[in-house]
Amino acid sequence: MKKDDLVQIKIEDIGTDGAGIGRADGITLFVKDTIIGDTVEAKVMKMKKTYGYARLMNILEPSPYRVKALCPVAKQCGGCQIQEMDYTEQLRFKENKVRSNLMRIGGFAPSEIPMEPIVGMETPFYYRNKAQFPIGTDKNGKIIAGFYAGRTHSIISNRKCCLGVDVNEEILNIIIDHMEQNHITAYDEETGKGLVRHVLIRYGFRTKEIMVCLIINGNDFPASDILTERLRELPGMTSISLNINRQRTNVILGKEVKLLWGKPYIEDYIGNVKYQISPLSFFQVNPVQTEKLYGLALEYAGLTGDEIVWDLYCGIGTISLFLAQKAKKVYGVEIVPQAIDDACRNAKINDIRNAQFYVGKAEEILPEVYKKHRIRANVIVVDPPRKGCDEVLLNTIIEMKPDRVVYVSCDSATLARDLRILCNNGYELTRCRAVDQFPMSVHVETVALLVKKR
Ligand code: SAH
Fold first, then answer.
1. In this prediction, what percent of the chain has a pLDDT beyond 90?
2. What pLDDT is recorded for position 374?
3. Given this model, what pLDDT does residue 397 score?
4. Rounded CA gap, 138 and 122, in Å?
5. Of 162, 389, 410, 432, which one is the catalytic site residue?
6. Rounded mean pLDDT of 115-132?
7. Is the CB of 307 under 6 A from ligand 1?
8. What 3-state DSSP class applies to 295?
9. Helical H runs in 325-406?
10. How many C-beta neighbours within 10 Å does residue 222 have?
11. Which one, 195, 265, 273, 330, has the greatest CB density within 10 A?
């Protein structure tokens, strides 16, 4: 097989970046814009030794799972990867991905994988409580807002993303009208000139509070009083601010926030724990599914009120505070100091007194505290980033011998690797369930329960 060859293939899987995967002549080909079940004609664009990339030319026989995307720019926009795949099939694909990684990478036999049915959403759209729209100028000089096209920084104009809430569009209309009337420029990444870089919007699903933050390449915003007056007419508007970012960088937010109107934060709930969320805070973007995911973590932890629990990679303490309600004591560890500030504040506003937080690397703090104080843990929860748990941390967990380990994972490949290590060292995988936090994307979260073998 070589470049420019035309091949006919059946798409059998989806890769980590959302491209369809099929095989021809023993070669694995990645074909963008295809879904599982499509038979397509594709043109080979680039060849490596055992795999290649091909461009979709023709759909010869559409997959029975192919549906019309809700969003008119789903193909161009880098936000969604599998909108053209029926949601039930998306769920089946995600559950399979977890199971096959546990088998392939973790070496678990099918009978050793106690998978419970994946937790999907009833309405798999409009679920995001946060949106960051880049602002730019199109070739006719008109101000646009939207999302970056996949792997690039060109803006696909779209004020009505169907993963976000309806009010996003109204807010963008008000801001862009205001920019046009006052001749306020959009930032241009190429030249580093222009004022408005991004609009960040957050929405409290439970409280209905709205936050708008304009990220600007400057210190002030022209006629900001007129803008805030208009934004305040929207029901639920709670916080309007500027974020100053004068750096030539891809990082969206700068460090400094200037409040224009209202409170410096909005509030929202996960379960019955209240959180204060400011423009710079981390907060889970799909609160409905987060509640289900962390609810499962709580269930798997099997708390009776007497347990010492460690929550490693705890972020703003969402899981810690959730668990603290049913545990004797919870210790959280997180590397980002601001996240721990949020965790402590959130513990306080909820009057949770049995949670304590450490700033630092989980793989340094846990061994240190364990060596010094020989403290015990009945349950250890981990929720690491994609690269999974550090080996030093896993070894410390094995040494501490908690009764249960609850593993929350955003990457089932590293989950499988880490579960293998724990299962080779005294633990048994007894429950496992995938949760769809990000419908229309290829991402999937998993929660697994490991129990100490007798
Ligand atoms: N459960 C958390 C989110 C966890 S995301 C919540 O709901 O807020 C993973 C977290 O691990 C991130 O907050 C990241 O900053 C943190 N992290 C990354 N590497 C770490 C390390 N080596 N030690 C501790 N925390 C780390």
1. 94
2. 87
3. 98
4. 37
5. 410
6. 98
7. no
8. helix
9. 337-349, 362-373, 391-400
10. 13
11. 330
CA of 334 to the centre of ligand 1 (A): 5
Q: Once rounded to an integer, what is the mean pLDDT over residues 142-147?
A: 95
Q: Tell me, in angstroms, the distance from the centre of ligand 1 to residue 383's CA.
A: 7
Of 117, 138, 255, 254, residue with least CA distance to 186: 138
CB 191 within 8 A of CB 211: no
> Is the pLDDT confidence value at 151 over 80?
no
Indicate which residue's Cα is closest to atom 8 of ligand 1: 315
Residue-wise pLDDT for 248-296, tens only, equals: 998 999 999 999 999 999 999 999 999 999 999 999 999 999 999 999 9
> Probe ligand 1: pick from 281, 283, 313, 322, max atoms within 8 Å of CB?
313
Mean pLDDT of the chain: 96
Residues 212, 210: Cα–Cα separation, whole Å: 7
Ligand 1 pocket member 366 (CB < 6 A): no
410 is catalytic: yes
Closest atom, ligand 1, to C-alpha of 282: 8
319 Cβ inside 6 Å of ligand 1: yes
Helix (H, G, I), strand (E, B) or coil at 151: coil
* Three-state secondary structure call for residue 249: coil
Q: What is the reported pLDDT for 212?
A: 98
